[in-house]
Amino acid sequence: MRRPQLAVPKASRLVVGAFVLVAIGFAQDFRSVKPETVGLSSERLERIGTAVQRSIDDKRIAGAVTLVVRRGQIAWLKAQGMEDREAGKAMRPDAIFRICSMTKPITSVAVMMLYEEGRFLLEDPVSKYLPEFKNPKVFVQPTTGEPYSIPATHEITIRDLLRHTAGFTYQWNPVLGLRYKNANVANGLLQYEGTIEDSVKRLAGVPLLFNPGDRWEYGLSVDVLGRLVEVISGKPLDQFLRERIFVPLGMKDTYFYLPNGKVDRLATVYTYYADKGLNRFPDTPITEGPFSYSADYPYRGPKKLFSGGGGLVSTAQDYMRFCQMMLDGGKARNIQLLSRKSVELMTHDQLGNISSDRSFGLGFGIDGIKAPLAELGSVGEYKWGGFYYTAFSIDPKEQMIVIFMGQLHPTGGLSLDRQVEALAYQAIIE
User: Is 3.40.710.10 the CATH classification of the domain at 52-105+250-426?
Assistant: First the structure.
C-alpha cells in the first residue's frame, strides 16, 4: 500500500508530541517492586526461574523472558538462557519476539476503537465495507464426487470476525488449506509480495468452511479485520496502530517490520523434534503440507503485508503495557483508548450456544466460563498465545498479568508457558 506524502500540519505535530509525552509518562509508571508489596512471594516467584532454567538445561528451549505484573507494578521480570545460542548471545529483558497471534487482540482493540467512534455496529455485515465478501459461499465436500459450494445462509458480520465464527480457517486446515495456498492467501508468517488488501480479496474468493455463526474455527478473521481498519480509518494498519495504540501506550519496540537498528535484538527461533532435539530454525521456510512458515519475515522480504492476525513483533514490557491498558478498563494514564464497557464486552463470552465448552470474547480466549479451570487461575481470566511460543494472561480479579516470551516451533509438546502461569498464581500470598 503506497502512502501519500503529505505535509503534517503544526497542530497535528503538537498532538503527536503530546502523545509521546504521555507515552513516556505512562512507561515510567511501571516500577519493579519487591513482590511482597503487591501480595506475591519472592521465594515462590523464584520457582518460575527454576522451571525455565530446567527447560533450558534440558535443551528444550534456548531462552525466554518471563514477566509478572500485579496491581500495576512489576513483581517479576527475568531473562534467561540465550537470545542466539550459536552466537553466544545471552537473552536480555528487552529482547524482541515474534508474537504472531498475540497481534490479534491488538487489532481487535483497533476495531473496537472505530466501533466506539460510531463507524459501524458489530452486527453489520462486513460486506458493507469490504464488498468482496458479499454473498459468501460455503464449501461442500460430498462423500463421493467433486466438491462444490453453496450460498451461505448468513452474511459474515464484524462480530463473527472478532469471535472467529466467520467460516475462515488457516492453511493447515485439511479441507481448505490447499485452496488458500493456491489462491495465494497470506498467513502472516511468510514473506508475501502483496498487501493485506491483496490477500483479503483473494481470501474472499475461497468458499467458507461453514456458514457464518455456526461454529468456532480459528482462522484468518483478524487479517480481514486489519483490512477493515484500513478501509474505515483511511490509514494503513501499521500507521493506525502506531498512532492510536503504540505511541499512547509507550510501546516503542512493537512493529510489523523491524527497523535495521533493532534487528540484532530479535530473538532467534528454534525448532524441537524428538528425534533431532533443539536446533536453530533453518534458513529456508518449513513446509507442512500446504502451510509454510519462516523466521526471517520481520526483517527480510517485501515488507508490504500488515497481517492483523499475526504479523507483529514486540517485547515483554511493551506487551505488558497493552495488557495493563485492558486491565485498567481501556485507560492508560489520562488517555482513554477504549471505554470500560468495550473492555467488558471484549472479555465477555461471545459464543454462547455456538460452543458448549469454549469461551471466546472479541479477540481473547476466556477461562473458567463453560468448563472448570484446567490449572491455577481465575474465572474470567482472559488470554491468548502466539505461534512461536509466546503467551499472556490478564486476570481482573487478581489484578495480575503474566507474560511468557519464547521463540520455538514446533515445541515438541513443551508446556513451559502454562507452567509459568501456574507458578505465578501459586506465588499469591494475599
Answer: yes
Task: Give start-end residues of each CATH 3.40.710.10 domain in the chain.
Answer: 52-105+250-426, 107-233
The amino acid that residue 419 corresponds to is: Q
Q: Write the secondary structure of the chain as one string of H (helix), E (strand) and C (coil).
A: CCCCCCCCCHHHHHHHHHHHHHHHHHHHCCCECCHHHHCECHHHHHHHHHHHHHHHHCCCCCEEEEEEEECCEEEEEEEEEEEECCCCEECCCCCEEECHHHHHHHHHHHHHHHHHCCCCCCCCEHHHCCHHHCCCEEEECCCCCCCEEEECCCCCEHHHHHHCCCCCCCCCCCCCHHHHHHCCCCCCCCCCCCCHHHHHHHHHCCCECCCCCCCCCCCCHHHHHHHHHHHHHCCCHHHHHHHHHHHHHCCCCCECCCCHHHHHHECCCEEEECCCEEEECCCCCEEECCEEECCCCCCCCCCCCCCCCCCCEECHHHHHHHHHHHHCCCEECCEECCCHHHHHHHCCCCCHHHCCCCCECCCCEECCCCCCCCCCCCCCCEEEEECCCEEEEEECCCCEEEEEECCECCCCCCCHHHHHHHHHHHCECC
- Residue type for position 205: G
Beta-carbon neighbour count of residue 430 at 10 Å?
Answer: 7
Model pTM above 0.85 = yes
Residue 378 has pLDDT above 90, yes or no: yes
User: Which tens digit of pLDDT belongs to each residue from 332-345?
Assistant: 988 999 999 999 99
Domain 107-233: CATH class, spelled out: alpha beta
Residue range 358-375: mean pLDDT, rounded: 94
Maximal CA-CA distance, the chain: 67
